[in-house]
Amino acid sequence: ESGKSTVAKQMKIIHKEGWSDQELKGFVNVIHTNVYQSVKSMLGAMGDLEISFVNKDTEALVSNFDPPFVEKITPELGGWIKSLWADEGFKKTYDRRAEF
Question: How confident is the model over 17-69, as pLDDT tens digits?
Fold first, then answer.
């Protein structure tokens, strides 16, 4: 892939009317999926980088919540992600994101 579609999308934003409401709605599932996959990647990196959760409640939360695939971030999943970001170990993993 040479990036032609990306250039076309950028040209549309810069030189045309931008995205229609329907086009914007089409990106929601992609964004939700990317957020979840990024969180899962960070959780995997925590083990590889030997970083532990500071809050043991967060560790228990992670071990009890593992949806296999996400297309939409529900309020429950949003709360789960918010809890992860409140943990200093998870933040430390993010600070080292260039390593994974």
Answer: 777 888 888 889 889 999 999 999 999 999 999 999 999 999 888 887 777 77
d(CA 49, CA 75): 29
What pTM was estimated for this model as a whole?
A: 0.76
Max CA distance (Å), the chain: 51
Q: How many helices (H) and strands (E) does the chain have?
A: 5, 0
Amino acid identity, position 93: T
Q: How far is CA 85 from CA 15, 23, 42, 95, in A?
A: 37, 30, 11, 12
Whole-number Cα distances in Å, 92 to 32, 50, 65, 67: 23, 11, 21, 24
The C-alpha atoms of residue 98 and residue 57 are separated, in whole angstroms, by 27
